[in-house]
């Protein structure tokens, strides 16, 4: 007799694991959605809308089965600059257009090519975002208005701190923010059964309870209602796409959101043994999500490694967990919006200071400096450029440096000479022999003795282009003085 099985369980064999994981991801995502929206200069509900779309729409699509999408700290600075420059109604146009571009790139199978972007540029981009985010949110933690530019934020911190010390209200606000960061840091050292509650949620709950209990003079989240926060872009807003500055912002949204999502997918794949990411499908899923977010006037979305890692670690097995997390966000926003009004803004600022600090790869910079100083330099210059100029131009500077370094590496060549003073002179070329390095190669070879036999080994060359091959053959024919054996070319590149 065959054992009876639950038809529902056979249809959804991992429902219990996915349900539990969805609750964990929801608790991680809730404070981040609200905090990122506030830091971006938009209503808190806009962050929840993006989280809902990331769960219910992108979460239901194919691509990466376990990574979770929503508003990301990595786009906070760019969104804030865009809202300040073009206005809140234009945000939907920017996000919608970026989503359409992602759909086109996914359809053209360009998703895998994002893996070719230098990791140093991506980490430098995240480091620059982290620096600007931390600096800006320190002002918010003290209840102050932050300067507009990245350099202004960093340079103004000492003066802002001195001003906060003399203001009881600023000190109270700063205390709530500092307490939030401190609680999130120590939360990782609490017993495992305590850490079932995400640190960000615990910090917000404690900060809210303290603020209410002691009636602290701190600003709290303003709530408009989920439907009121929806701002569908009008046709007149699309006219702004004719400007180069707006198009540049769209390209920045597209590049950063796509790169962050696909790098996150690669990281999530290393955390589990399930199906691997289909990069082009994942790019299209992100494009659909951003198109919907843009149509609703919400924040842009990316796949977020913090939520995705929480999803995997909580035992998720299928994409059902991320869809359910979107459902829980929707129910919370619809049924308990007034709960948001109790959350103190400095607590959200503290969460983002913590998130921004984690974007700065200090250990990576140290390791790169020891082994690959060129890559470390690209990372640092990209980060500093983002702080000093802006997001888009900073990334372009990093990409330009990466291309320049690749060109330099591709043309790098070394000549080793073994000359005992008598007999045959043995020389060996290694690296990449391209026309870019041809003058240096010929100068070094022409300095070899002409009155003794010369043997040039080409086996160490990774690449020998036509211009260099012809020049070496010509040099070999003409180098030796009359009465001396001609130069011998040996190795795979010799003829």
Automatic annotation (TrEMBL):
How is it placed in the membrane, per its record?
A: Multi-pass membrane protein
- Compartment list: Membrane
Membrane-crossing segments per the record: 20-39, 46-66, 86-104, 116-139, 170-187, 199-218, 238-257, 327-357, 377-404
Keywords annotated in UniProt = Membrane, Transmembrane, Transmembrane helix
Q: Which residues form the SLC26A/SulP transporter domain?
A: 15-382
Asked if Transmembrane is a keyword of the record, the answer is yes
Name of the featured protein: SulP family inorganic anion transporter
Lineage, opening ranks = Bacteria, Bacillati, Actinomycetota, Actinomycetes, Kitasatosporales
């Amino acid at each position: 007799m065959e054992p009876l099985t639950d038809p529902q369980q056979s249809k959804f064999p991992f429902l219990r694991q996915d349900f539990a994981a969805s609750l964990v991801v929801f608790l991680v995502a809730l404070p981040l959605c609200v905090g990122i929206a506030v830091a971006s200069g938009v209503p808190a509900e806009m962050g929840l809308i993006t989280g809902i779309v990331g769960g219910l729409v992108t979460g239901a699509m194919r691509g990466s089965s376990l990574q979770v999408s929503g508003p990301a700290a990595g786009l906070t600075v760019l969104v804030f600059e865009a809202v300040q420059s073009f206005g809140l109604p234009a945000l939907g146009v920017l996000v919608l257009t970026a989503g359409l571009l992602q759909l086109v790139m996914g359809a053209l199978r360009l998703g895998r090519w994002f893996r070719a972007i230098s990791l140093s540029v991506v980490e430098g981009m995240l480091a620059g975002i982290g620096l600007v985010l931390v600096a800006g949110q320190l002002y918010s933690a003290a209840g102050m208005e932050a300067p507009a530019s990245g350099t202004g934020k960093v340079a103004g911190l000492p003066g802002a701190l001195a001003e906060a010390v003399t203001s009881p209200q600023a000190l109270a606000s700063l205390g709530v923010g500092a307490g939030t960061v401190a609680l999130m840091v120590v939360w990782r050292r609490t017993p495992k059964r305590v850490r079932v509650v995400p640190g960000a949620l615990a910090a917000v709950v404690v900060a809210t309870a303290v603020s209410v209990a002691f009636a602290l003079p701190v600003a709290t989240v303003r709530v408009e209602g989920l439907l009121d926060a929806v701002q569908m872009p009008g046709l007149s807003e699309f006219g702004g796409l004719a400007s180069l500055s707006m198009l540049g912002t769209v390209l920045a949204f597209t590049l950063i959101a796509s790169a962050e999502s696909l790098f996150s997918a690669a990281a999530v794949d290393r955390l589990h043994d399930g199906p691997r990411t289909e990069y082009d499908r994942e790019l299209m899923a992100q494009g659909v999500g951003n198109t919907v977010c843009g149509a609703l006037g919400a924040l842009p979305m990316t796949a977020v490694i913090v939520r995705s890692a929480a999803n995997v670690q909580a035992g998720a097995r299928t994409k059902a967990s991320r869809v359910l997390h979107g459902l829980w966000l929707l129910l919370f926003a619809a049924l308990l919006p007034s709960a948001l009004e109790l959350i103190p803004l400095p607590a959200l600022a503290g969460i983002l200071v913590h998130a921004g600090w984690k974007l700065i790869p200090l250990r990576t910079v140290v390791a790169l400096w020891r082994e690959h100083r060129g890559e470390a330099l690209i990372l640092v210059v990209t980060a500093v450029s983002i702080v000093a100029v802006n997001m888009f131009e900073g990334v372009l500077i990093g990409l330009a440096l990466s291309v320049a370094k690749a060109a330099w590496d591709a043309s790098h060549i070394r000549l080793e000479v073994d000359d005992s003073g008598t007999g045959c002179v043995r020389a060996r070329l290694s690296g990449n022999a391209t026309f870019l390095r041809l003058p240096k190669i010929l100068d070094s070879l022409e300095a070899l003795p002409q009155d003794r036999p010369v043997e040039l080994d080409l086996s160490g060359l990774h690449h020998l282009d036509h211009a260099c091959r012809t020049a070496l053959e010509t040099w070999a024919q003409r180098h030796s003085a009359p009465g001396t054996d001609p130069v011998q070319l040996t190795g795979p590149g010799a003829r």
